[in-house]
Design brief:
Number of strands: 15
Largest sheet: 11 strands, mixed
Strand order of the largest sheet: 1-3-2-6-8-7-14-15-11-9-10
Number of helices: 16
Radius of gyration: 22 Å
Structural class: alpha/beta
Helix content: 25-40%
Oligomer: single chain
Strand content: 5-15%
Length: about 550
């Protein structure tokens, strides 16, 4: 087995050293200047764009209610009843509505998979008490015509998100058997909409550790048990791919919703920063952290995001007034899609590039206008991401310094270098962020694009034995590939969605990423839903799954 500590430390220390060198070589203007000292996110820009998004959003035709099954669905309600593991959120709701199955039947059918010894067992940490009773209540509500928006939908919860009365450990030996005192806001909102939390799902330690978790071990990928699912929403990605739940909650600080979505062939969205409250979610890097849903389809994500979005009075970064997030795939014609060809296509395997090119062609065939676009200084921006991450990691974990030997190898390697950036380094990276946000919005405005379409993760899932990913035959440490196309959008807080877009020659899934301006989450959801109406990548099932022996549907 590879020495994980040596590999991670040998990769991240030089990365951080180079990032700090580059940032210090490009200081911001000295005071007095017209540049405001505005650490954090650009509230002025985000507030303006929020108002614009609310004004531009179409008025819903009717109040939000359990939606009918998609016309693109390949699973009938009868098939859902006989094999609920194959069903998406939307398909389950349709089957409940027409009475072909019930939440009690679905939870009963899925529950044995949560305690099995199959590949996906790595994903499940602890069962949440009360699932059977909640399913019975949902079954009663459907029969009585009292169903709520997500009535009877089982979901998994990443082990950094609190579920009341459940042991939630952040994947760490540091936390002991901590019992969550209350539901995180996102869990409480899903419960209030009728959804049922059924188990906590594995994560890397504090959402930043290595694949080989010291407390729980590694999470194997259902597509190939010798590969990883991608961090840090490891269990959420595996559980969705294996079809043991139709919905999971994840978090994304450098790509941790989108990475497992790409590497496991599922769909996930990192919402706009400030759209979904982080109350009750363990902080890793608070100006980069996002909480969001992971599921099979963009249609599912839109249903869930509508439930969990909006300020809760406790997370100061969230807004009470939020724009519509409904997916509207029929509005794709005329949408202008920006396609970058430089940073996001470098260090990317040919199979991923081919899938991206095919997705571009598919969008063009749907009536979208394809527009070239490039963003400036992405290498320098990527460096600033590292500085913010390490500065906030150090602040969050400094109280564990005396017990640092309890960290797993990946977290320990990061912790050991986290105190390297100075206060000036950290604040420079925060002050630069509003400038980067404004410049990226301006570039999208100049090009007149609604969304940007990039390749997903640069290669297929990394190997667990040596932590490498192969790009056109060349092995790279996973840290040199995984965050490259995702982390920048955590830094700027733009909504970004990952969805499956094909299969590489090694048989593993690859993805593409859709990005929009802040608060235009509905645009990436609509574009993804339109793509999924005419493709079947999101229906493909890995060899290790809870469906009826399928290997590639």
């Amino acid at each position: 087995m590879t020495d994980v500590f040596a590999v991670v430390r040998g990769t991240i220390a030089p990365q951080l050293e180079q990032a700090l060198h580059d940032s210090r070589a490009n200081p911001l203007p000295a005071a007095p200047s017209s540049l405001p000292a505005e650490p954090g996110h650009s509230q002025a820009l985000f507030t303006r764009l929020l108002a614009a998004a609310i004004d531009a959003a179409p008025t819903p035709a009717a109040p939000v209610a359990p939606a009918p099954a998609s016309t693109a669905s390949t699973v009938s309600t009868a098939a859902t009843a006989s094999d609920p593991a194959a069903a998406s959120v939307t398909e389950l709701l349709a089957a409940y509505r027409d009475g072909s199955t019930t939440p009690t039947a679905v939870v009963g059918a899925l529950a044995p998979h949560w305690t099995s010894d199959d590949v996906w067992s790595d994903a499940v940490l602890r069962l949440v008490d009360g699932a059977e009773q909640a399913a019975a209540e949902s079954t009663r509500r459907w029969a009585a015509g009292e169903a709520r928006a997500l009535e009877g939908v089982p979901f998994a919860v990443k082990d950094i998100i609190d579920v009341a009365g459940t042991v939630v450990t952040s994947g760490s030996l540091q936390t002991g058997d901590r019992v969550a005192p209350a539901d995180a806001t996102v869990v409480a909102r899903l419960r209030a909409a009728g959804a049922i939390p059924v188990f906590t799902a594995a994560t890397t330690e504090f959402a930043c550790g290595g694949p080989h978790n010291a407390r729980y071990g590694a999470v194997r990928n259902p597509w190939d048990p010798e590969r990883w699912t991608g961090g840090s929403s490891t269990g959420s990605g595996s559980a969705l791919a294996a079809r043991i739940v139709p919905l999971a909650l994840g978090s994304d600080t450098g790509g941790s919703i989108r990475v497992p979505s790409a590497l496991c062939g599922t769909t996930g969205i990192k919402p706009t920063y400030g759209l979904v409250p982080r109350t009750g979610v363990a902080s890793l890097s608070w100006t980069l952290d996002h909480v969001g849903p992971m599921a099979r389809t963009a249609e599912d994500l839109a249903l869930v995001l509508a439930v969990i979005a909006g300020g809760d009075g406790q997370d100061p970064t969230t807004h009470t007034a939020v724009p519509l997030v409904e997916a509207a795939p029929g509005r794709i014609a005329g949408m202008r899609i920006g396609v970058p060809r430089v940073w996001f296509t470098e260090r990317v395997d040919r199979a991923v590039l081919d899938a991206h090119a095919a997705a571009v062609d598919r969008f063009a065939a749907l009536g979208a206008q394809i527009v070239p676009i490039e963003f400036d200084d992405l290498e320098a921006i990527d460096a600033e991401c590292w500085t913010v991450f390490y500065g906030e990691l150090a602040a969050n974990q400094e109280a564990n310094a005396a017990t640092a030997d309890l960290f797993d190898a990946g977290t320990r390697a990061r912790f050991d270098v986290a105190f390297t950036p100075t206060a000036a380094d950290y604040l420079r990276s925060l002050r630069r962020r509003p400038l980067v946000q404004a410049a990226m919005v301006a570039r999208m405005d100049e090009a007149g694009v609604d969304v940007v379409l990039t390749p997903g993760i640069g290669a297929t899932a990394p190997r667990l034995d040596d932590l490498t990913m192969t790009v056109d035959g060349v092995p790279y440490n996973l840290h040199d590939v995984i965050p490259r196309n995702t982390r920048v959008f955590d830094y700027v807080g733009f909504p970004a969605l990952m969805m499956p877009a094909g299969t590489a020659p090694d048989g593993l899934p690859v993805g593409v990423q859709l990005v929009a301006r802040p608060w235009d989450d509905r645009l990436v959801l609509s574009a993804a839903a339109a793509f999924q109406e005419v493709t079947d990548h999101h229906h493909r099932v890995p060899p290790a799954s809870a469906t009826r022996g399928s290997t590639d549907q």
